[in-house]
């Protein structure tokens, strides 16, 4: 029993370390792009599928100058260049612009385009954090039991 707990503890620690390294890579790449100009950011969590984060460096007119992506199911995924978006207007991008079989990458691209369109229209941009796996599980169990979610508690927790 003790050996199982030790293995689980080591796995948890390794996941935390690798997740930290991955977020550090994402942050470093974002900072590099941000030093060059405006950056639009899109995200789509994956759950058991590959999640995706996209970053588009844009000029004053919303034309993409550079594009980067972080896509994968493991903590070993790193930020990579995403070719084929340079010179395109960010507000016109859709999920169909992603390579086939990259569903969450397409949704992240769509999220970045939507955020940019809201920004240029002067609308409020929703900055609520994405629900974590435990929160998703709790929501699913609650909906199965017919319980309503208390949004006030969530709003207080995120502020």
Counted by DSSP, the helix tally is 4
CATH fold category name of the largest domain: Sufe protein. Chain: A
Cα(first) to Cα(last) distance is 41 Å
Name the strands of the widest sheet in spatial order.
1-2-3-4
Q: Quick check: average pLDDT?
A: 84
Based on secondary structure, the structural category is alpha+beta
The radius of gyration over CA amounts to: 18 Å
Explain what you see:
47% of the residues lie in helices and 16% in strands. With 159 residues, it is of the alpha+beta class. It has 2 domains: 2-127, Sufe protein. Chain: A (Alpha-Beta Complex); 130-159, no CATH class. A hairpin with a 7-residue loop joins strand 3 and strand 4. The chain has 4 helices and 4 strands.
In short, what is this structure?
It is built from four helices and four strands, in the order H-E-E-E-E-H-H-H.
Characteristics:
single chain; 159 residues; alpha+beta; Sufe protein. Chain: A; 2 domains; 4-stranded antiparallel β-sheet; 4 helices; 4 strands; globular; disordered C terminus
